[in-house]
Automatic annotation (TrEMBL):
It comes from Natrinema thermotolerans. It catalyses: acetate + ATP + CoA = acetyl-CoA + ADP + phosphate. InterPro entries: Acyl-CoA_Synth/Transferase, ATP-grasp, ATP_grasp_subdomain_1, CoA-bd, Ligase_CoA_dom, NAD(P)-bd_dom_sf, Succ_CoA_lig_flav_dom, Succinyl-CoA_synth-like. This is acetate--CoA ligase (ADP-forming). Residues 487-523 form the ATP-grasp domain. The lineage of its organism: Archaea, Methanobacteriati, Methanobacteriota, Stenosarchaea group, Halobacteria. Its EC number is 6.2.1.13. GO terms for molecular function: acetate-CoA ligase (ADP-forming) activity; ATP binding; metal ion binding. PANTHER family: 3-HYDROXYPROPIONATE--COA LIGASE [ADP-FORMING], ACETATE--COA LIGASE [ADP-FORMING]. Keywords: ATP-binding, Ligase, Nucleotide-binding.
Length: 703
């Protein structure tokens, strides 16, 4: 166990603010502890001598030694109460009381003081504004909820106390048990990362689940989750999806990425299974808590009903699993064992008069097939089929083959006793075949997570000092944006760029163009104009003779379009052969929770139209960068679809990694777009650049 073990396994729990007043939270918590907790319960209230038959103490210093203090006093005396328990030597505190940062300025100040006291005394504080915590092994229900949790191996955290009370009511009816339960509250001191680390080190926690509305320290959470999911699955429901953050962002990358995609990418990289609903959360948790991992993705379906069998097959098709293709020997054995009317291919339809013996034989043969990694038993009630006996048969086959099997015993009361029997052996039963497949899918996904090798970020030889100098230009400007005039930033990090120069008069434009072989590309350079091509600010294939006139034209168009725009000049750039190339985008938007969110996708003018992109939280290594390329729908273009010569995929992958290193090295970079990054057979070239920098943060960055 970790540093929070005493929080869940105290010998003495004090209720600070205990009372016998009907309807009071302090009474509810005391009653829950008194009626179930294995240890000693200590009421603290200076106005009482006894509470609910228990000796009451004036303060923590006069009480017996306290391992855990549950604080439920009015908000204006919470700080005093916490200081008292800290002075008494208590290290673990749960603050039930509301009235902190969720209520405005005065509450926020109170929460700041609570944080300071916790730091001063090295306290482990849950809350404030928390329902409380539970630990079923010792019967500790230090909450004011109406339900005790059943004992089990799932540890559960939630930012919503109401969600916990609703879940426990439902879980008790479903026979689902928990090890520890935590209402996170305002997360002033302890947050989701602390509990992931704690439960990851707990041998009696088989699965960690959670309902989260936000993650305070995204990078810290990802680091902890990566370590924990090497052994213990984490399944989360994350609420609060919104497009508002994406709409407010100024770059292409920011507009496409947004905070929700940061959560999606970050949790995936950390090995966390993301549930889309509460139902999926528990369907996954039940399978992960009791079943072995499948050796392969092949699923066998055994049923006595054609319709449910087809539904199950459809559900497998919608998952990452696949219907197992039976070996010839398996089909021959099934044909010999089943009636002539039965279907011996997958799904196996043992037909409506199948009894337990026929089900068991079909399941046995299926599980012995080398292509089967898991199985679903789907049964409709009939007069010749005993669900109770079928449950015993399924348990026997699972124990014999150590292959995960889930059941779908369709029906109501008829299935209840059998369901309880299966549950005792760790086999979940689902009414809906699609939910049964979802449970198996979670097992397969977690197997893949555990088998992943560590993808360590590459460290390239770069010129950080030069990059710092370029970024520092924002200190001398009226705004914090940089553009193509800062292409040397990419060169400092080894990202290829075509030959170019920014000029501020037509004569110099002609001189530069004449020094570049062939026709050139000319672009207006302005931090205020994002879509240069839309206003005629980009000209391709300009001959030396036309450069001076084109210079005047693009500047005039820019001034007409936006008279107050800052015009840095015009970029004269070597023209690349784009016929055999693909325009891509590589960019970054700094997410407030997770940090640098790197994006790759189809670029040029299509980036915001098609939104064919993939994202990762930096830093990451080559495997993640390569997956980013593979994930976009336009990947076949890069690989040489329809006779095209393949692009330099390795060059693209390396560029993504170099950008990951750049934005990790410089937290002052808030947003960045390389659009387009032209990928051709002979390599990649960054054609255009836009970025936004926080100059104040740059001061703290060591070049």
């Amino acid at each position: 166990m970790g540093r929070l073990s005493a929080l869940f396994d105290p010998e003495t729990v004090a209720v600070v603010g205990a009372t016998d007043r009907e309807g009071a939270v302090g009474r509810a918590i005391l009653e829950n502890l008194r009626d179930g907790f294995d240890g000693e319960v200590v009421p603290i209230n200076p106005s009482r001598e006894t509470v609910l038959g228990l000796e009451c103490y004036e303060d923590a210093t006069s009480a017996p030694p306290i391992d855990l203090a549950v604080v439920v006093v009015p908000p204006d005396i919470v700080i005093e109460a916490i200081r008292d328990v800290a002075d008494a030597g208590t290290e673990n505190v749960v603050v039930i009381t509301a009235g902190f940062s969720e209520t405005g300025g005065e509450g926020a100040e109170r929460e700041r003081r609570l944080r300071e006291i916790a730091a001063e005394h090295d306290l482990n504080v849950v809350g404030p504004n928390s329902l409380g915590i539970m630990a079923t092994e010792n019967g500790m229900n230090a909450t004011f909820g109406p339900e005790d949790a059943r004992e089990g191996s799932i540890s559960f955290m939630s930012q919503s106390g109401a969600f916990i009370t609703a879940v426990l009511d439902w879980a008790n009816e479903q026979g689902i048990g928990f090890r520890d339960v935590v209402s996170l509250g305002n997360k002033t001191v302890l947050d989701e990362t602390d509990f992931v680390r704690e439960w990851g080190s707990d041998p009696n926690t088989d699965v960690i689940i959670g309902y989260l509305e936000d993650i305070d320290d995204g990078q810290g959470f990802l680091e902890a989750a990566r370590e924990v999911t090497a052994d213990t699955p984490i399944v989360l429901v994350k609420s609060g999806r919104t497009d508002a953050g994406a709409q407010a962002a100024s770059s292409h990358t920011g507009a496409i990425a947004g905070s929700e995609r940061a959560y999606e990418a970050g949790l995936e990289q950390a090995g966390v299974l993301r549930a889309r609903s509460v139902q999926e959360l528990f369907d996954s948790a039940r399978a992960l808590a009791g079943l072995p991992e499948p050796e392969s993705d092949g699923v066998a379906v055994v049923t006595n009903a054609g319709g449910p069998g087809v539904l199950t097959t459809d559900a497998v098709g919608d998952s990452t699993l696949e219907m197992a293709s039976f070996a010839d020997e398996t089909i021959d054995r099934l044909a010999a064992a089943m009636p002539d009317e039965a279907n011996v291919y997958n799904p196996i339809d043992a037909i409506g008069d199948a009894d337990v013996e026929r089900f068991g034989e079909a399941l046995e043969i299926a599980l012995e097939d080398p292509n089967v990694g898991s199985a679903v038993v789907v049964a409709a009630p009939t007069a010749v089929l005993s669900y109770d006996d079928l449950a015993e048969t399924v348990i026997e086959k699972l124990e014999t083959h150590d292959t995960p099997v889930v059941t779908c015993l369709m029906g109501g009361k008829r299935a209840r006793d059998a369901e309880a029997t299966l549950r005792e052996s760790g086999i979940p039963n689902y009414f809906d075949p699609s939910r049964a497949v979802s449970g198996l899918n979670a097992l397969a996904r977690f197997r893949d997570i555990r088998e992943r090798t560590a993808d360590e970020p590459a460290t390239f030889d770069v010129d950080r000092e030069r990059a710092h100098e370029i970024l520092a230009r924002t200190k001398r400007r009226d705004d914090n944006r940089l553009g193509v005039e800062s292409m040397e930033l990419l060169e400092a990090y080894g990202i290829p760029t075509p030959r170019s120069e920014i000029v501020d008069d037509p004569d110099r434009a002609r001189e530069v163009a004449e020094s570049i072989e062939g026709d050139v590309v000319m672009k207006i350079v302005s931090p205020d104009i994002s879509h240069k091509s839309d206003i005629g600010g980009v000209r391709v294939g300009v001959s030396d003779a036309d450069v001076a006139d084109t210079y005047e034209d693009v500047v005039a168009r820019a001034r007409n379009y936006q008279p107050d725009a800052t015009i840095v000049g015009v970029q004269i750039q070597e023209m690349l052969d784009l016929e055999a190339s693909t325009e891509t985008i590589v960019g970054m938007n700094r997410d407030p929770q997770f940090g640098p969110l790197v994006l790759f996708g189809l670029g040029g003018i299509f980036v915001e139209i098609l939104e064919d992109t993939s994202v990762r939280v930096a830093p990451f290594g080559e495997a993640e960068a390569r997956e980013m390329v593979d994930e976009i729908q336009a990947a076949p273009l890069l690989r040489g679809a329809r006779g095209r010569e393949p692009a330099d995929i390795d060059g693209v992958v390396e560029t993504i990694q170099r950008l990951s290193q750049l934005v990790t090295d410089f937290p002052s970079i808030l947003e960045l777009d390389i659009n387009p990054l032209v990928a051709g057979p002979d390599g990649v070239q960054a054609i255009d650049l836009r970025l936004t920098v926080d100059p104040d943060d740059l001061d703290t960055t060591d070049p």
